[in-house]
Each structure stands twice: as C-alpha cells, then as structure tokens.
Amino acid sequence: MKRFMVAWGVMWLALSGFVSAADTNLVVLRTVGGVDSELKARLVSWVSTAITPVTDGGIAVPGTRTGKGPVVLILAGECKPGDLPASGTNGVVVVNLKALKLDDMTTSVARETYARRVEKLAVAGVAMQLGLLPCPFPRCALYQHETVQDLDEKARGLCPPCMGKLPEVIERYRNR
Asked: Domain segments of the chain: what residues?
C-alpha cells in the first residue's frame, strides 16, 4: 500500500507538470553540526519528489527571518543552543537528527529507519510551512504522531487528498 501511494504521488507530479524549474527556490536545505552527506542527498531527493524541488543552501547561519522567501529546512546534527532559529515559525523547519537516531545504528535496518524518520519529519514540516494542515489519516506524513512508534508507522509522503491540495497551497505561499 505504501509503495502504491508513493508511486501514485510521483506519477501525479510527473503527469501534471507540477514540478518545474520555477519551483527550485521554494525550499532551501541548510545544515548545522556535521550532517552525513548521504543522508542529506537522500533528503534532497525525497523532499524534491514528495513536495517540491529543494535547493542546497549550505551551512545554516543564525539570524532572523521575516517569513518571506523560501522555506528553510535545517538538518541539525550536533549543535549548541543559539545555533538554530525556532522551528515552525517564519518558514523555518528544523529536524533534530540526534533525537531521531536509534540506540544501535550498526544495522542497515536501523539506518533505514533513521533515514525514513528524517524524511517524514522534513516532508511534514515543509508541507506545513507551505500551508497544509495536519491530516487525520494515520498513514499521511502530515498525521500528528505522538510517539516514535506512530512516527515509524506513518508514510514518508502525503496522502492523495493532501497531494491534491498542494498546488493551491504552493501558489498561495508564492503570492503571500
């Protein structure tokens, strides 16, 4: 079922012509505190597929945002207080990588679980900053999880109803 929903979403984006070069400045990815390059590349690829293209913005620099411009997605590895802006406000999404790691990261299953957790939170954060609301469907990335188990069970992408709202939400974000 999960693969069907992901394939459906990718096919819808491709057929609708929704993803275009004009979207490349909607989301900027930045990093703080040593982020694995493979994880970063995987996240850029997945968010670009699931929501809208992501531009690599390099290292995050502390500062204030006015709420205008692209959504800034920050992957936070090891960092100290003050290195990051608050997540969820003014177009900023912070994914705390350390909080998502499993105790034992030596197995391929653990590394995959970790990467999927990062993808789910990044997709949900970016979609909400663009203007989508939480979703009641437990398999949607926008479902509000309460536990790590809930996070692990929900999908990495948006459900079909949320995907259907995405073009209008992105247009509103651009015209704000």
From this structure: 20-174
Sort 87 into a burial class: Cβ within 10 Å, 0-12 / 13-18 / 19+.
middle
Beta partners for residue 169, in sequence order:
none
- What confidence tens digit (pLDDT) does each residue in 117-156 have? 999 999 999 999 999 999 999 999 999 999 889 999 999 9
Give the three-state DSSP class for 93: strand
From the centroid of its chain, how far is CA 13? 17
18 and 167 Cβ atoms separated by less than 8 Å:
yes
Confidence of residue 18 (pLDDT cuts 50, 70, 90): very low
Q: Alpha-carbon dihedral of residues 115, 147, 149, 41, nearest 10 degrees?
A: -10
In the three-class reduction of DSSP (H, G, I as helix; E, B as strand; rest coil), residue 134 is classed as: coil
Q: Does domain 20-174 have CATH number 3.40.390.10?
A: yes
CA distance 35 to 25: 22
**How far is residue 70's CA from residue 137's CA, in Å, rounded to a whole number?**
27
Average pLDDT over residues 47-67: 70
